[in-house]
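Running log. JK asked me to keep both predictions on one page so they can be read side by side. First protein, sequence followed by its tokens:
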Amino acid sequence: MKKRTFKLLACGLVLTTMSLITGCSDDDSGPAPANPETENRWITLAGAVMQDEPGDGNGGTMVYAISKENAQDPNFSVNVYESGMPVQSNRTARLQSSVDGNTLFNITYTGDNGGEFMTYGVNGANNFVQSGTTVNISQYAGTSPRWTKLFDGDRTGVAVNVTAPQVVTDTDGAYLRTRGTATVLSLDLQNILISGYKQYEIALSAQEEAQGHHIFRLDAPTLNAAGDKLIIGTWMRKTDPTTGANQSGFERLGSKSVVVDYPSLQNPVVITSTVGFGDTSGYRSFNSFVGNDNNIYQATQRDTENGSYILKINQNNQYDNSYVFSLDDALGVTGSYIDAWRYAGNGIAYAVYTHEDANNQGFVARIDLNTRTAQRVEGITYDADLDFGQYQGFVVDGNQIYIAVTPVGKEGNIYVIDIPTGAVTKGAKLLNRPGNHYIGVF
């Protein structure tokens, strides 16, 4: 009674100061979750099947959906390879999921039906209902398009592609530049149709192109907070101007992204970071996220000298070169490499990564974008055969993030991490087959 009387008195005082009126409440439930939470959400597991070599994941993709309660239960076991359903894909499927977990979105990767987009309704276990409607985008974006779902309420996906870059010479045969034709295509995820596309060559500076630098691949498009620009990651390569052949071991330019108007997809502009020098394309997952501060945070890859960085793109759609966040420095390693990562809310993110001395073994890191610090997540069973190179999917739901952790050909688990505190809980056991590995939860 004394505590409640004190609380009422305190609120009476606050009521006399209008600026603090919102400070009084009888609700002691604590802060709101970092993200929206979906009751009875399905957690869909995806497993990649070996084709020729253990861990290559090129033999197709299996999916199986379980409840959140089962996902959190270490006594529950699931084998997606025995009980799951194959999704349409000649190789590893490029999957996305709706925020509520009730729909999977898929674009077939390579093969006769490469570039075909369809959805699957998620009904639990291996009960996935494929949409009666499909649309094939291969005539615009090729049979192996890279794509991500925008964070716009599950309305839009964006696929991107660059045709094989071609060497251009003058009439005397002297090298001029190397370029491919880029495609940026928007998909209406609800009505399963192409809502727009644009194709163009994307030029670098005259000096960079004369040296042979060019965009080899586009990936990981992200919609900015204002909703008027797409930020698209790049994978850079270099032609040797003297031979016209691809050059390895070249001095890298600053990290680059392409910015286009949205929703028109017009007016491509290249922006360059002077902080990072790696590529910004990611590999098979999201690679940029809009933070709670409305700035975009972007990971880098393939910088063998400096390791991965987290870069910041301000709301003016330019790199903030005052923001310096080296994962090598934060983790105390060399040659860090972010395979995939996910923003989890309130400046916290989680990444699956490896580093120079790890022999490709994977780890999980908790990243604080505000303090520019990171630490390896303990409480996870690590193994020399744990490889996140093809990892795609995290589930963020309320205050929890779900990650599937399985070494190639070995059992593993779902891990459920509390976003505000970082506390780790071992969840469902993931049974495996030789050569296979789980590539995400959706």
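And the second, directly underneath as requested:
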Amino acid sequence: MADTGKDMLLYWGSGSSPCWRVMIVLEEKGLSDCEKKLISFSDKGHKSDEILKLNPRGQVPTFKCGDIIINESFAACLYLEDTYKSQGPPLIPSEPARKANVLQRMFEVPSFTKKAMEDLLYLYMFKKPEELDQEKMTKSKAALKEELAMWEGYLVKAGGTFLDGGEFTMADAIFFPSLAFLVRCGLKLAPTFPKLAAYYDAVSKRPSVEKSWPPHFKDTEGKPHLADVL
């Protein structure tokens, strides 16, 4: 009998890419019955005593699997794949070259998110328009465009729908939520990056992604901060 997620608890926030990664992997591994508690960032739910007891950093995802607590999204995803390897499709290939490729792409995602989030979107989110350094913003947009071109190249090289070619892997579970957040923020992938545009459309339709799609993404529109990047 397959294991279930009944002894698991995930605290998550809608729209959080790290939370979404874990939720995709839970769906892929057949652990969708994991108990999930949605927190409100605006109400500082991630700083509640309930979460701080499990995660002293006061962040989400905060994830409990039995007596094991894992609060970093990469760590939680890798733990789930290793522990429930026989359930669902393998998200990390066993063949050495493919495994290396998937791990490489996974651990490149923080470089992608830094250029997209820390160097650009966070400035829009946490500064007033008159406080923005327009020269810096222009440079950050150019750097993001270069980063997107790199990922476009990875898809061309892979020669398939996903980052490792024809199979959905952990690299996609880690990368896609960050890309989807940029699209929500106005990024237009086509026609500049046709492979990324096709990738976004394909992964959006994957059941694990559809089932874990952030609720407020469905009901509201994001700010068009990145509409002029490409």
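Observation for JK regarding the second prediction: The chain is about 50% helix and 10% strand.
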